[in-house]
Amino acid sequence: MKNNASLLILLLNVIGRHRQDVVTAFVSPITSSSRCEYTTTTSLSVNKEASSTTSSYSPSASFDTFQATEIDASNTPPNLQTILTSLKELKSGSDLRGTYAAHANSGGTIANISHLIKQVKGEGNGAALTPFASHCFGVAFARWLLQHEGDDDASNHKHGTNALTICIGRDPRIHGERLADAFARGAESVDGVTKPVRVLYTGVTTTPSMYEFCRAGKCDAAIIITASHLPEDKNGIKFFSGSGGLDKEDIDELIVLAQEEATEWYNTGIMPPSSGNAGVLCSELVNFLPYYKETLKQAIGREVDPNPNPAKPLSNLNIVVNPGNGSGSFFSDLLRELGANVAGSLHLTPDGTFPDTIGVPNPEKKAMVEETMRACEDCNADIGVMFDTDADRSGFVLPRSIDANGVCSSYEPLNKNRLIALLSVIFSSSAPGATVVTDSTTSEGLNTFLEKKLGLKHFRYLRGYANVINKAKELQGSEMAIETSGHCALRENGWIDDGTFTAVKIIALLANSKGKGSLLDLISELEEMPFDEEFRVKATDGSLETTTAVFESVSKSLKEKCSVEDQWTLDEDNLEGVRVRLSSGGFFMIRQSLHDPVISLQVESVSEEYARPVALSPLFKLFSEHASVLDLSAIEK
User: Fold this and answer.
1) 50 or 497, which is more confident?
2) Crossing angle of helices 289-303 and 499-513, rounded to 10°
């Protein structure tokens, strides 16, 4: 179909009748009478996306024709090169992420896509995630899966069909549906030769649920369209096969396949159509979330021991759930069905406009923690549970004090090092001597608590949830991989980072400990420093190359300085950036961001008054040598 379209366009040029209304008459090479057209019927807010004939970015000029001068040294036309580069720039570790940018549903040209990408980047918004890009990655994922048939359980087709079946879910962001439609159309356009490619659409769900659907045999592979805690104009794609989430190297392969597909469309000069605001075109509409909800209920039933009331194991708990209008909203119903009082919960309706007080949900966000604490105070809750947008991370609020009448007071956050410590308490009993893998930014006090107090092994590794998970898989005897951000993956749950399963473990511990004081008492021996801050130094030109050059220079100077500073001791075992222990306790470290032109500086100290002359001022002096290319305002204050 694409070759025919290209020939017809050439013919129209020859006879001087190349008109836009003719081009828009072409249909996608994806046709199937058995597919379903999905229209949203949930209580989500009205979709405010641009209509099918407009773009959220308005090109200032028409790019319907290509100039002969638009050729670079590699003979790749600049418009195509812009598109190919943008597809590569969407990579964010083992995911794709970018700023959502809408274009016409049909009838536009590939050159319009190039112009849109340039405009998004020119406005300082980074890589553009367009429906066209989603279409190309849909094609790429289907082809990649067919190429890797037999590599894992995805080839067993336990769902009962001979087709290669891909399930798509999304978080509540409004534009997720259009990206899902484009991805589905792309995937189903792939000719599987011996088997067709079928796409199922399950709507709003959580990231960890998508892997559960794969390993339960409901599909061969899955994606979720989400940007997690990033601003609402961002979106992204996470990929799963029967063996878990895809790795960075897998994403590199997908990018190459997506670039090949983009080049094919470029050669036709037109864009593949999408449904716009009308819904998702796919083989079948499904609702798999209830299945996932049931697996979590069963997990709580197994964890609560003793369990005098198997049908209602949480009947003695009062819990505030705050999913922040994100995908984790179902968790409140789950707890209620198990007997918990969840009447004080808030923000329970999935809504991609995130209209309430906290914006996009993030359990590390101060505003979300504080409003959850207030809600707990208002209803004397035993615990508050928070999720990020796609519920792969969680955070908690607990009372410091509980009197003889069960009245709770002095609520405090359970996150970062505290959350790692409390989960480790569980494994100190269930798996004595086990290894806990964390990211590089955990505290000195946490290391002492895990190894000296609990008898566990602590392995600090590189920041990035995929990094800590993969390292935990490698290490014999490891039970948990966790970051201070709240990303947590457990061996017993197949090493998928799952905020809802983390909540299962904490809530079950609470049910088992009810009447024995605060859960915070279990980590009372965790040493915590009063001053714990992160500062972010940005490259003013937004360049990763500049950031890397500065980081390497400062790192070298910092290591040299450790030999002459009496209060500094270089951490020789550190695997990321440069980590320096302070003689009074605590540490500071610098590391380069995984994806952004940022150098992170983290300081943990007995006080701010001590940290400034001993750590911050010397570091500011080192960074000031590169002041012409850095924004130092974060540490200048």
Assistant:
1) 497
2) 30
